[in-house]
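Fill in residues.
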């Protein structure tokens, strides 16, 4: 099952905002070459809110094609409409994705029972592995450990991306669910601690620009090697912070543009990184030995 450094891949775009297939292929090769353990395609970092459904599935399909079985592809396929989540999950499975990432329904603020029924319906309708995604800071709802425990009894709900930034939350889910549920960090600054208490990896923004360093960090933290994990994490700490100096994925897309890996495109309502924050990102890239 999925483990380690799992990049929340950006969706590269031309300066005019069109999806850039050529750059997408380069990014996939970059991650294959640098040891990334899995790719998350069209999650939040992949600008899923601004891709229409046809673009969304096409990016998943192209990512699967470029990966060619060399590393798993997990498709962002969540929605605040259960019907839409089923559609995206089924289309992602048909495109060859190894699993889907299912975010908690956002904006309409369902109850715990509503979220349980939503995820159960997706899991029963689409028989591929699914990873839950809890990110209260973006969605306005918090999937509680007791609800995760209920969902872990469904055979094809195999993990959760926990983006509360609280390692104690991860520990509680692990205690409740045992081997039925893998727990992944959704926040780079606290990912090391989550893995050291038993988490299975990090769905990472930082891995977009520092894939080799993040793979090493995850491997050492999962193995329980605190000293080596801390040494790597110290070198990455400025980068973790700088990549969120403006709403993600603004800084990480600019960093990849600066590194020459993608064009400058990003879609409204997101805007390019401000000039004032560009030196901070460059300095963080240097401190992390990316430059």
């Amino acid at each position: 099952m999925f483990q380690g450094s799992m990049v929340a891949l950006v969706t590269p775009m031309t300066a005019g905002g069109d999806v850039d297939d050529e750059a997408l292929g380069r990014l996939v090769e970059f991650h294959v070459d640098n040891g990334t353990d899995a790719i998350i395609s069209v999650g939040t970092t992949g600008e899923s809110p601004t891709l229409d459904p046809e673009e969304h599935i096409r990016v998943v399909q192209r990512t699967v094609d470029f990966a060619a079985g060399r590393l798993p592809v997990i498709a962002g396929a969540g929605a605040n409409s259960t019907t839409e989540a089923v559609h995206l999950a089924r289309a992602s499975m048909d495109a060859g994705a190894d699993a889907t990432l299912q975010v908690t329904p956002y904006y309409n603020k369902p109850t715990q029972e509503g979220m349980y029924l939503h995820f159960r319906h997706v899991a029963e309708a689409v028989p591929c592995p699914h990873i839950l995604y809890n990110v209260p800071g973006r969605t306005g709802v918090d999937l509680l450990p007791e609800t995760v425990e209920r969902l872990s009894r469904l055979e094809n709900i195999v993990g959760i991306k926990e983006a509360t930034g609280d390692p104690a939350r991860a520990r509680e889910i692990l205690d409740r669910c045992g081997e039925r549920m893998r727990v992944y960090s959704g926040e780079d600054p606290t990912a090391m601690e989550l893995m050291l208490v038993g988490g299975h990896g990090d769905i990472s923004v930082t891995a977009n620009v520092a894939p080799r360093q993040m793979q090493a960090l995850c491997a050492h933290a999962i193995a329980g090697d605190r000293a080596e994990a801390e040494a790597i994490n110290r070198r990455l700490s400025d980068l973790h912070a700088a990549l969120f100096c403006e709403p993600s994925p603004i800084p990480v897309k600019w960093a990849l543009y600066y590194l020459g890996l993608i064009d400058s495109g990003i879609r409204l309502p997101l805007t390019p990184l401000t000039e004032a924050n560009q030196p901070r990102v460059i300095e963080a890239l240097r401190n992390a030995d990316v430059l």
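The mean pLDDT is 97.
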